[in-house]
Amino acid sequence: MTEQINRARAFHSLHVKGNPIVLYNVWDPGSAKTIEKAGAKAIATGSWPVAAAFGFADGEKIPLDLALENIKRIVAAVDLPVTTDIEGGYGIAPEIVARTVTLALQAGAIGFNFEDQIVGGSGLHDIAVQVTRIEAAAAAVKASGIPAFLNARTDIFLKAKPETHDKALLEQAIERAHAYEKAGAHGFFAPGLGDEGLIEALCKAIALPVNIIALAHVPPRQRLAELGVARISHGPVPYRQMTEWLETKARQAISG
Q1: What is the CATH number of the domain that holds 123?
Q2: Which long-range contacts (CB under 8 A, 24 or more apart) does 56-63 make?
Q3: What is the pLDDT of residue 1?
Q4: Domain count across the chain
Q5: Domain around 56
């Protein structure tokens, strides 16, 4: 456990506004070892690529036991902190969320993403509901003895087209960030947000380190650093690019 604790503390220290940690998301032990070799400071799974790699759709379709076994194998394969994506915690009830967090930490993870969208439904959980779920996750972290990093994700921006992102959505995100911080979150994840002005305003408005996904419409790494971002992840992009390359090569070999 001492090693896991040290890795968790190290992972926390990597979140610095203006000097973001870059997480090039992985899906299995092989991809994790490759990213480690590339010079990564930490390893992060993404729910979409992990599910796809095992033949499932995203949205908690991959059995939790299988996802947990995958985390264990990734942790055993690398010498870096490993944070994982537990989506919505595999259940709405706080006690289910707490159990999922406990299992993820027992599998060796030192952090996790936890989202506020209603998995399998539509829209987001009300702030009050999500706060109780984050509180349960934070309590599970405390009980474990592992100072794991709870990255609270909001899907506000993913559920709206980039061209509709505005001050009103930003204010909603800020309200959630403040509530999530009080509930025990250590970071705030705003996937889908790409507007420079809104990103900078978010980073200035909240104390939590902000996590942005490097999508096509998002500013490059250096600019995100200038805007105050503390964590840059890549979500499903690496897996999609890898499979596109693989399919192209396969077609060439098969038709060649």
Answers
A1: 3.20.20.60
A2: 58/87, 59/87, 59/119, 59/120, 60/87, 60/88, 60/90, 60/119, 60/120
A3: 74
A4: 1
A5: 2-255
